[in-house]
Write a structure and sequence with these properties.
single chain, 2 strands
Length: 171
């Protein structure tokens, strides 16, 4: 796939797509996903959302499907299908909650843990290399700005709908 370089940012009238922040962030996110997914797609035959589920379980063993939905913002039905697929491939294990038989606690299998431990450092290395295009001060500022925008959007969504949870075990 040949990617075209974006035009230089101009002082265009409001409404031009290239200057619309959600559009720009979506494009950057998609490009980053295309680049980073190479680290797990070919060798482990994992799709992006499957990797997101694996990494969530890898960071918080014992999470529930609901926790995964809250953290990844992947729809419940899609998470359910992904869990079935990952279990059939031997990458995750499910334990039923003794206090609530409807709740499953998820953890990586030995093979799933091996995949997680092999891929995560590759992704972290890619991120370190990629961020070298920014100065140390710019990296700190980028982190602060993204955190600020994230908090503001979650606050607005919670106020409007009362339902944006992004932490494991959040009510």
């Amino acid at each position: 796939m040949k990617l075209q370089m974006p035009p230089e940012k101009t002082e265009a009238p409001f409404g031009e797509l290239e200057n619309f922040l959600p559009y720009r962030l979506a494009v950057i996110s998609h490009l980053m996903t295309l680049e980073t997914s190479k680290r797990y797609r070919e060798k482990f035959h994992l799709r992006v959302q499957e990797w997101r589920v694996i990494t969530t379980i890898g960071h918080s063993s014992g999470v529930s499907a609901t926790d995964i939905c809250n953290v990844t913002l992947i729809h419940r039905a899609k998470v359910s299908r992904i869990l079935v697929e990952l279990e059939s491939r031997g990458l995750i294990l499910k334990d039923t909650d003794p206090n609530d038989k409807r709740t499953l606690h998820l953890k990586l299998s030995r093979e799933g843990q091996s995949v997680f431990e092999e891929v995560l450092p590759r992704l972290m290395d890619w991120e370190r290399q990629f961020l070298l295009c920014l100065s140390p001060q710019e990296r700190i500022q980028l982190d602060r700005l993204l955190t600020k925008m994230d908090r503001e959007l979650r606050r607005k969504l919670q106020s409007a709908a009362g339902v944006v949870r992004t932490e494991i075990g959040s009510p």
